[in-house]
Amino acid sequence: MAQVDFAYEVAADAAGLPLAVSIFADDADVRGSMQEDVVAAGFSTLECGGLAWLADGAACPLGELVLVDCPQPDGAGLAALIRLDSRVAHAGARMIVATSIDGLEDVFAACTESRPQILVDPLRAERVIAIGRMLAELPSLRLRELTETDRLALLRLTEQVGKLAERLDGIDRNGWGKNAAGSAFRFESPVDTYRAGGHEAELLRKPRPPLPSARLVRKIIAARKARAKFLDMGLFADPAWDMLLDLTAARVEHQRVSVTSLCIASGVPPTTALRWIGQLTEAGLFERVEDDTDRRRAFIRLTDKAADAMARYFAELGQDAAALV
What we know:
By secondary structure, this protein is an alpha/beta fold. The protein has helices spanning about 30-40, 50-55, 75-90, 105-110, 125-135, 150-165, 200-205, 215-225, 240-255, 260-265, 270-280, 305-315; strands at about 20-25, 45-50, 65-70, 95-100, 115-120, 255-260, 285-290, 300. It has two domains: about 20-145, Response regulator (Rossmann fold, 3-Layer(aba) Sandwich); about 200-325, Winged helix-like DNA-binding domain superfamily/Winged helix DNA-binding domain (Arc Repressor Mutant, subunit A). Strand 1 (about 20-25), helix 1 and strand 2 form a beta-alpha-beta unit. Helix 9 (about 240-255) packs across helix 10. GO terms for molecular function: DNA binding.
């Protein structure tokens, strides 16, 4: 089978200078592969070292893109990550952080400002996909102009790479599309369709009905999971809805939901779930809540807007809600 290459021109800023990337990883092999990938994507390497060097060394200039690998962050590593997160946010740069499922809670809690893309136990292919998304999001990036045929071919190639990465990037095909800039890398935000009909409509609006019982919501969740006994769950991937249901039940039960627990509830790989959590937070449906007793933890909950929408949805179903089980 012939191999098709999609080459980019050198990624450059407005002055024509190559865009720079900083790489921080303790594993030399991982650091080397990350450097190869970003160079292949058209970046130049600005800094490349371990997390210990980042923690102990003097402040260094950061690139437009910062890649970090911290699978099992210790106290010093988390302290370095917190400082790096703040620097990236203030510099207007972007950051990709790779970690393990065991390190996810600590990394998520540490990154409060830069809104990084977090990858969980990523394969190399998934790292490349993440870099591709960042290429589309950096405003100063200049890529060669792609024809529509090129874009469609690149889209298919990217999807195939995701499947080969042990389906770690099993995203709904409807989530892959072109953004306003026409990029095939962009993971589209869920549409925020919940809007009031103006001031008068708000005044005439009926009071919000109560949320459904947690028992009903848990039964619906259990029924959805039962499909996996008979059919491939990949056919029914709907992470946004599964997370909304889980957080709805948790709100009624007055329970806090960790990011790891919510990733599990989503029914998709953690990296994909984290991307959805970010998109739903941007849409005003989820919000991050810091743990007052442990700064190393953070939780996710429904916003009042989302709770209102879920309550009205179940009220609309009425007695028919039982038929969903």
